Amino acid sequence: MIRPILRYGDSLLHLPAADVAAVDDNVQQLVDDMIETMYAAPGVGLAAPQVGVPLRLFVIDLSVGHRPADLIVMVNPVFVEREGMQIEEEGCLSVPGFNATVVRPARAVVRGLDRFGNEQTIEGRELLARAFQHEMDHLDGTVFIDRLRGIKKDLIVRRIRKLKRSGRW
Ligand SMILES: [Zn+2]
Asked: Cα-flanking dihedrals φ and ψ of residue 107, to 5°?
């Protein structure tokens, strides 16, 4: 089932999420729905808070469904290593229509559980490292524009407010 994706400004997007207590049937259903929702959007990553569920869980597929091996489901993820720096343009399904350059680690190793509750450790470089950091941020209630500073951030926030006022957000 495709679930609605919350947009920047919705309170559930701006709160830290809680650990998943058990990878039970409800979590399996949530994972299936999140994958379906991510592919339908389409997007390369989706975190549970974006569909209004305050749990530490995200899905990433840089191939957007084209290469099954690219699908990553991460439950209760933690960073094991982060190093380097990359500065690239980034967007978010919760902030449609806006992109900005964000500083991210060049390499990130994440450990967590897969959708069957087995421990897994995955190394990400370049785009995958960026996606890991972006989705981990969602679990902490941070959206990429929260990481921007100055005029660029003000401009995006002002435009979103304007869209909200006119009922288009
Ligand atoms: Zn996002």
From this structure: -145, 135
